[in-house]
Amino acid sequence: MRIQNLQSFYLLFLLVFFFSFNSATSESHLQLRRGDSLSVEGDQDFLTSPDNSFTCGFLNLENSNAYWFAIWFTNSKEKTVVWTANRDRPVNGHGSKVHFRGDGTMILTDVDDTVVWQTNTTTTDVAIAKVLNSGNLVLENPQGDNLWQSFDFPTDTLLPLQTLTKNKRLTSALRKGSYGSGYFNLNFGSDNVLRLISDTPDTSSNYWPNPDFNVYINGRTNYNSSRVAFLDDMGRFLSSDQLQINASDMGYGIKRRMTIDYDGNLRIYSLINSTGLWEITWQALGQSCSVRGVCGRNAVCVYAPDPRCACPPGFEVTDPSDWNAGCKATFNETLLRSRQVKFVEIPHVDFYGFDLNTTSPLTLEACREMCASDFRCLAFSYRILGQGVCFVKSALLNGYETPDFPASIYIKVPNSLQPPNPSILYESRRMCGSAEAEQIIGSPSMYDFVPKRVKWIYIYSFCAALGAIEITIIILGWWFLFRKHGIPASVEAGYRMISSNFKRYTYAELKKATNNFKNELGRGGSGTVYMGVLSDGREVAVKKLGDVFQAQDEYSAEISTIGKINHMNLVRIWGFCSERKHRLLVYEYIDNLSLDKHLFDSNFLTWKQRFAVAIGTAKGLAYLHHECLEWVIHCDVKPENILLDGEFQPKIADFGLAKLSQRGGPGSEFTRIRGTKGYMAPEWALNHPITAKVDVYGYGVVILEMVRGIRLSNWEVADEYENEAALKSFVRTVKKKIERGSSVWVESFVDPRLKGKFYRKQAETLVQIGLSCVEEDRNKRPTMASVVQTLLECEDDAEVQISDNL
Ligand SMILES: *[C@@H]1O[C@H](CO)[C@@H](O)[C@H](O)[C@H]1NC(C)=O
Ligand SMILES: *[C@@H]1O[C@H](CO)[C@@H](O)[C@H](O)[C@H]1NC(C)=O
Ligand SMILES: *[C@@H]1O[C@H](CO)[C@@H](O)[C@H](O)[C@H]1NC(C)=O
Ligand SMILES: *[C@@H]1O[C@H](CO)[C@@H](O)[C@H](O)[C@H]1NC(C)=O
Ligand SMILES: *[C@@H]1O[C@H](CO)[C@@H](O)[C@H](O)[C@H]1NC(C)=O
Ligand SMILES: *[C@@H]1O[C@H](CO)[C@@H](O)[C@H](O)[C@H]1NC(C)=O
Question: Which ranges carry the Bulb-type lectin domain (predicted)?
Fold first, then answer.
């Protein structure tokens, strides 16, 4: 016993010595032997991994006496904890200790000697405890067998090579700066699929992968029951349900972690050596409001434009430091049981789940009556999906806003509730760039404040006059009382995410890389593209932007938005240059030419390749429109902007340029790059507001051309009348054939060069999607998300057909 104490004293001495001289060359890693202990009081009482990247010991929250036995990254600027033994049972800052007992158990005791945590290694032959370079605390026997490891008991973080298996889960922290368990989990479901699940005191629901789609559409499988997932040391996350994720800075030598943050989002972080700060290199949800339950009861997650929690009219925040506590009513809730109620409409907002009754078809009037007459009903959601659908809600949970959600929630409030003073909240929300595009084109802004106010007052008095039940039409956002505390800082960090490969280049660097702009690859409305090789050997395409983009202060802000966009069907942007009058973009180099070269030339794609290009392109556009951090309209979808990689996977180029050029002010040269004749939706000419549906139109033309194998847009022909003719006559002929009900109509429209080698079902689907995409009325065009869904369903069909059709 005495010898062991001496030993530990000696180790402690070494440790103190090591720290006081701050020697970086320590080879002696520390280990604990039976009988040793670590004390909460000893400032130097730590275990470190041999390479000093992880430290294990006691840690407290700032200004508190609550301590945890934890492992953290040694070199990050702020202590980043990857594991705690006593997550929900902190110990006292005096007298607590971790003791490696003579019987082989490691125990953590509080000041009163109660055992707070212990390992299950009693009566084994464990001899030492040490922290490995991977961040794993292990107990080993003299033969080096691992008998216990912290990797088996993850908290909120998964380190490279730590496996997440059947019965393990990652659980988020409760709030920022807390180590306690929160409400969001990552684990395998009983159907073998890895999911993010929200388990709040009020509700439990899964939110990733998208619960509206089935397993296969989400790119997962449920047939592999091994249920194992891990992050490898290159930054790839692989799971037995076929999920594969690549960190944006994929490669060796970078310290990473995968953490489920307290806001419910799952992220991969990389440590930046030079600053000790973390960068997000992947995250599960681009839109933080997609996390179910992030804002608590009665609260709504809104974009303003950063995600925040907000209380609806008649409600106020319960606990400003904790949004999980949600909002509470400012009125006496028993008033809702009477029929003296009215409804407040909040557009584009929904409370997920808790439907007392879903009825369709139903009129808005009847839906309101159903809610008013049922005392359990607190709100109803009403949307038109072909016909009116009425959702009657018994609880206001999982509130979130989706700017393009075509429905409103109507919240029940007492008749006597006075409207609060309206406050101006929605400055310029950047949704999709569409609001901005509208302004530029000169239509009235969606968020124009004054006229709506007049309308509201009018309607309000009208309704008040009507008496009993009123529907107050309230304009988007009026009633949201934003609170500064809002959503978690890590969400904001998500908005600042810049992948580490995205950097600012000097003009000299790019001049050198392109050999003084010698090798021109192409020329377009927005600029000229040159081939280049960076000093690290990467092949790049450098685009010199035209004058439209010059002299704009916001250039770098916009560019970093675009730099964050990362999807396998979009060309990656590695960086940019903004120096004096020069504006350049640095893209990944795609070597297999653009789609037009593979479609209209003598060498042409097979059917399988065409279908894959159609799906990939749709996925890329859907990502731009619906998923990325700030939604983007491409504005120039055409075969020339769809590049194909070595495997003929499409990658969309030139997205985000419309966004960059919008800053020029009203009536600026937006028109110059606003699209390409033949692929341009009619609303361009009609001066209607530009929405994501212009891309849907362009996409429609492209897929019809892919089926047909010839240009339908005929944009090379100068005469405008001709242009329209090719597409229009095609559309007319197809529609006629379909109407006639011929069962083999599609054969005559498919590229004859394929010699009949195509899947009829897929061809029919493509033509039908194409036709709906080029509808004159943009409201009749589908969204890119629904196009993806339709195509994916049809992709499955093809696999069945493969054997008998080709
Ligand atoms: C301790 O628990 C871990 C994880 O539950 C298990 O793998 C290990 O076999 C256990 N060890 C002993 C000695 O029971
Ligand atoms: C199931 O997943 C594991 C881990 O990814 C893999 O090793 C195994 O081969 C898979 N099994 C089948 C039947 O695909
Ligand atoms: C991840 O990278 C690998 C190459 O290492 C590639 O095969 C795979 O398609 C990538 N996955 C995604 C989702 O980008
Ligand atoms: C960061 O530091 C580690 C260890 O000091 C080193 O191996 C790695 O190459 C460095 N990474 C970068 C990107 O500089
Ligand atoms: C709410 O109103 C009911 C009936 O009018 C009353 O009995 C109750 O005390 C009120 N509750 C509060 C908290 O004011
Ligand atoms: C929903 O309401 C309709 C009309 O009141 C009623 O016929 C139906 O049974 C209700 N459904 C449920 C599940 O309560």
Answer: 23-152
